[in-house]
Task: structure prediction
Amino acid sequence: MKFATFRHGESQTVGLWNGVDPELRPLRLDGHPVSLLALIREPGALARCSADSVVPVSAVELLAPIPKPSRNIFCVGKNYRNHAQEFSRSGFDASSTPAEAIPEYPIIFTKPPETVIGTGAGVWSAVNVTSALDYEAELAVIIGRGGRGIAKADALDHVWGYTIINDVTARDWQRRHKQWFLGKSFDTFCPMGPLAVTADEIDSTHLEVRCWINGELRQHANTRDLIFDVATIIETISAGITLLPGDIIATGTPEGVGIGFTPPKFLKPGDVMKIAIDGLGCLENVVV
Result:
């Protein structure tokens, strides 16, 4: 099933997405607007929902599927081999030497909930703060059943579904502070959506990931090229941290980011970023 969170008039709710028309069927739980987090966290909640009359997507404001996550988004760094190598060559990677470009274990960092925005929303250029604004197209996992010490063999049973994330990054801050949290956590630096799609419709091992900047295809890869797959990532994070329903994990970006070019192709105000992943729709944002 495909879900979208949206604002229609004074109401914010979740709707079922019909991508053919395209239109949305707003859902209500016990007569009230419902959030995607409530549907994920409450077993049987979807079965208790009623559906309003359909509304065209053109008549609503699409938001991130989970507009305000309950805690930080987990992210994986350098999880495509070619991107790890382009990052190492760029001079912006203060986390390792070129000989250590390919990580032995998943590199995990986080982005705060306040970074999240929806498709169509503006990404802050931070022109007075950074001179090296970059984009990163990523598949993101939404946890459905929580737990600690989740074995790789069982990990996919804990996945509720998937969405798209743009892990926007201030590269100069990433290099200067020798860690990734600050440079990836500016306001608006986590566009997400537009859809959240249940796991039964998505094969996370074989998805085409594409990113265009102003119509130019910059990133194009397949999730089969991930160094650490979704199950390995879940096993790694949950070894010591209890994952909760509604947690979001961004799985890493492929090659073709701005720092991979000579000279680098950093973002500037007015640039349009468009990301598409099979079955998950298209996330589009402009730098403002």
